Amino acid sequence: MKLACTLQVTAGVTVSSAAIPPSRASAESLGVKGPRCRGVNPTTIIANTAFNACLRLLSRDNFRRFGRIAAGPSETACQTGKHSGTLSNKMGSERRFFKRAADRFVTIRRRRLHHKNKGAAWEDAMLDTPSQSAEDVRLQSFSVTYEYPVVFTRDAFALGNRCLVDALSRREPCKRHRCLICVDEGVLASLPDLASQIENYAAAHAGSIDLVGLVPVAGGEICKNDPKTIPNLLEILSQRAIDRHSFVIAVGGGAVLDAVGYASTIFHRGVRHIRFPTTVLAQDDSGVGVKNAVNLFGLKNLIGTFAPPWAIINDSAFVDMLPPREKRAGMAEAVKVALIRDGKFFEWLEAHSDALARFSRPHLDHLIRGSAELHMRQIRLGGDPFEMGSARPLDFGHWSAHKLEQLTKNQLNHGEAVAIGIALDTRYSVLSGRLAAGEDERVVGLLQRLGFDLWHDKLRQCDSRGVPLVLKGLADFREHLGGELTVTLLAEIGRGVEVHEMDERIVGNCIDWLEQRA
Ligand SMILES: NC(=O)c1ccc[n+]([C@@H]2O[C@H](COP(=O)([O-])OP(=O)(O)OC[C@H]3O[C@@H](n4cnc5c(N)ncnc54)[C@H](O)[C@@H]3O)[C@@H](O)[C@H]2O)c1
Ligand SMILES: [Zn+2]
């Protein structure tokens, strides 16, 4: 089965303009005389012309109206509603002049400097940089379309399986493609023959594949936490002379895909990368997305890139090798995306929770495809594939999950932490009056039937003021996004709603509720 994911991204630059003297020439055309200095940058010249304009204005009767007042913030003058004014400090060594221009104030700071034998001199600096006029601004705008196949297959490295060869040859069918393959050590441990299978596959398709190396990468969060992972990967890419037309292929769980993806997208400003997700979570969520990241300074995903891959090949045989704990973890992301996007899919998960808890193969396949398609749909149609706005629409339940992963030092894996985060935010949706009472029981019931434990003692850990440490996750979330906090809650099962504040008292009640049920 093959799905195509197409993304179109439009980039542009918009610069506002205001009627502030834009340049020396136009200031002078208004009769403003400014000093001519060689080797002075344009901002200084603008500052000086504006300064003179301001002085001319002040020299009329406006100056008198403000008089000498103690040095203070420029807002004081702005708030008076006056159009110009000056402030000076008590020593008279620094003055600030304000002039209203269009909808903003221009502020010039004048400082007295003392030169030996030369007496006093003044240094002027413009504290606000004026906007450019419309004729100095060009609007840059272009669109980029991304298109990549997301393939669902089995035994991708069996000699007769052409999924990889087809993906490599998509644009250049007659070329022999240089490929470096990075493989999760956890996958290599459970499939010791994998390395030779890959080598045999490359040899059998030698017309299309030039295998330049097979690199093991430590599996799990350790590879995202270790500061040496990325430099080591970059060194290998450099040693193997990977260029912008070569392929870096990552085979592994979400963590290895994140780390190898990140290294590939910064090397040579981005080389082609193909993902083979090997866990339920990576196949139903992270692997089909456009994000790559590693952890830094103890913060989850602090550095990373948005970069659509060249292709994604989901091989269900890898999932068979997973330990039960990892199989279960990935189901949390399917529950998450069903809750915020697709009530029918949630009902299907509920109806088949027992089979899923037994990891029945057809049911697990259905869960993975359903969840992957909902994640792809959000990226394709959500309007913000690279999350430029202040929302992380697919991160329901994640503000506390990321914090719990950190607080437990990854004792809880991502999916397990997400399950707790989902339970917390679903209860919050009910207590804050957004979701009908009883729906929280339904969600928690499903998660428990799938085998999730919805309590961890770290939820109780508080700082010296008695505030639960997990609440710091909200501040981290806000910081990551920039701007205002945006958290997804539930309006109904299948429909997420964005909110911009969380009441810490209600979060505390939700934690109590989870503890009582544990
Ligand atoms: N980029 C994104 O959009 C995105 C989205 C969600 C999650 N993530 C990230 O994904 C990571 C979690 O990924 P994960 O849940 O896939 O777990 P993981 O990558 O941490 O892997 C878990 C363990 O399973 C092993 N493993 C992987 N595949 C195996 C297989 N087929 N057989 C046996 N063992 C195998 C690994 O070696 C590791 O020890 C987190 O770092 C999370 O932040 C990224
Ligand atoms: Zn997640």
Taken from the alpha-carbon principal axes, the silhouette is globular
How much of the polypeptide forms β-strand, as a percent range?
15-25%
Radius of gyration: 30 Å
- Using the coordinates shown, work out and report the CATH topology of the largest domain: Rossmann fold
**Count of helical stretches:** 20
Count of strand segments: 15
Q: Tell me the name of the CATH class of the largest domain.
A: Alpha Beta
Bound molecules: nicotinamide-adenine-dinucleotide, zinc ion
- Which architecture of the largest domain per CATH? 3-Layer(aba) Sandwich
Coarse structural class: alpha/beta
Characterize the biggest β-sheet.
7 strands, mixed
Low-confidence stretches: 11-80
Q: Mean pLDDT score, rounded?
A: 84
Q: Tell me roughly what share of residues is in helical segments.
A: 40-55%
| Cross-sheet strand order for the largest sheet | 1-6-13-10-9-7-8
| Domain tally | 3
N-to-C CA distance: 41 Å
